[in-house]
Specification:
4 helices; mainly alpha
């Protein structure tokens, strides 16, 4: 469990993970401009990569978020 908390801390401090303020601003922009969909920050790159290389993107995501907890 400790390892999982550390992993989540590392992920939340990553430059790839969007900050809550950025997400809130994107949501507010979507609501005020009546957008049906909004992609925030680095998710645009992930979306682009997934469209070009779906299998690779899924594999890379699994590797990046791999659970190393021992049961």
């Amino acid at each position: 469990m400790k390892q999982r908390r550390e992993q989540m801390g590392q992920v939340s401090n990553s430059t790839v993970v969007e900050k809550p303020k950025d997400v809130a601003e994107a949501i507010w922009d979507a609501v005020t401009n009546k957008k049906s969909e909004v992609i925030v920050g680095s998710a645009n790159l992930s979306r682009f990569m997934y469209r070009l290389f779906p299998s690779f993107t899924q594999w890379a995501s699994r590797q990046a978020l791999k659970n190393n907890d021992k049961l």
